[in-house]
């Protein structure tokens, strides 16, 4: 894809970009503003989109970069204490058809996720929720792949610790919340819910 094709492709990317932005910001209005600023930046810099680059990964990178710049401008180093509204949970997964126990566990997983540091939360979102590979995630946020792997590992361990275990090496705990919440496939992709 080239930069000239971006305006035609951008509308199809907006739902995923908005969902990612919502998970980063925790507020639907902030997410809308973030996506709007990211789209403006992308259109201004469309000539920088290299042929063969995945446009969606490039856009995730821009959304993340704009978000980080916003955090720096606010001099906010940690977003762990931010209150997230109920709409965040609704956007992660539809609770319809779940038992009350499953809904409770899902809420606990989301709570543990909200407490992660921003860097770990962003990596977890891109890999586990958006389904990007480790390499795509590294490119999107501008860090080495090893950093993605270590942040993801620490995030999984932190979530697993909230459930009384370690997220890594839960092969023998098929039914544990941490295993189902933080498992990853062999291809470098995973899910949190």
From TrEMBL:
Residues 107-158 form the RNA polymerase sigma factor 70 region 4 type domain. Keywords: Sigma factor, Transcription, Transcription regulation. Residues 173-193 have a biased composition (Low complexity). It comes from the Bacteria. Coiled coil: none annotated. Gene3D superfamilies: 1.10.1740.10, Winged helix-like DNA-binding domain superfamily/Winged helix DNA-binding domain. Residues 163-193 are annotated as: Disordered. Residues 14-75 form the RNA polymerase sigma-70 region domain. Residues 163-172 have a biased composition (Gly residues). One of its GO terms (molecular function) is sigma factor activity. One of its GO terms (biological process) is DNA-templated transcription initiation. CDD domains: Sigma70_r4. It holds the Pfam family Sigma70_r4_2. Belongs to the sigma-70 factor family. ECF subfamily. This is RNA polymerase RpoE-like sigma-24 subunit.
